Amino acid sequence: AALGLPRVLVVYGYSNSQALQRCSALGIGAWRDSHNDRSLVGWILESLGTSGAAAAPSAAARAAEPAPPSSPQYDELTLIDWTTRRTGVACECPSHVAELLLRLQQ
C-alpha cells in the first residue's frame, strides 16, 4: 500500500454515511457484513490484489499476531438486556454493540 503501510479493510454491521465516506477518503475498504463468507473472502482477496495462493507471513507479521481473546466481560443476559434498553440518545449504538458482542460469542 501507499507509504509502505498495510492495507486496511473493515467489515462492519452498522455504520453511517459519514464514517463510510471517511473510510473511503482514507483508502480504507469497507464491507457490510452479509454473513456470506465466500463473498467476504473474495472481496478480501480482490482488495488485497492477491489470488487464492497467499504468501507465507514474514517473521515480523507472525510476531505481531494478536494474543488469544480473553474471557467475555459480559454474560449473555446482560447483553440481551442492553439490546432492549431505551436511552435518551438518538442512536442505536448500545443495541448494536450488544448484538455484535453476542455474535462474537457464537
Biggest sheet layout: 2 strands, parallel
Helical stretch tally: 5
* Termini separation: 33 Å
Q: What is the C-alpha radius of gyration, as a whole number of Å?
A: 17 Å
Broad structural category: mainly alpha
- Global geometry: globular
- Unreliable stretches: none
Beta-strand percent range: 5-15%
Q: Give the proportion of residues in helices.
A: 40-55%
- Report mean pLDDT, rounded to a whole number: 73
Order of helices and strands: EHEHHHH
Strand order of the largest sheet: 1-2
Tally of DSSP β-strands: 2
Q: What is the number of domains? A: 2
How would you describe what is shown here?
- With 106 residues, this protein is mainly α.
- The chain has 2 domains: 1-52, no CATH class; 71-106, no CATH class.
- 45% of the residues lie in helices and 8% in strands.
- It is built from 5 helices and 2 strands.
- It has helices at residues 17-25, 37-48, 59-63, 76-84, 93-105; strands spanning 9-12, 29-32.
- Strands 1-2 form a two-stranded parallel ribbon.
- Strand 1 (9-12), helix 1 and strand 2 form a beta-alpha-beta unit.
- Helix 4 packs antiparallel against helix 5.
- The longest helix has 13 residues, at 93-105.
- The radius of gyration is 17 Å and the shape is globular.
- The two termini are 33 Å apart.
- The model has no long low-confidence stretch (mean pLDDT 73).
Secondary structure topology:
Layout: E1 9-12, H1 17-25, E2 29-32, H2 37-48, H3 59-63, H4 76-84, H5 93-105
Parallel strand pairs: 1-2
Features:
mainly alpha, 2 domains, two-stranded parallel sheet, 5 helices
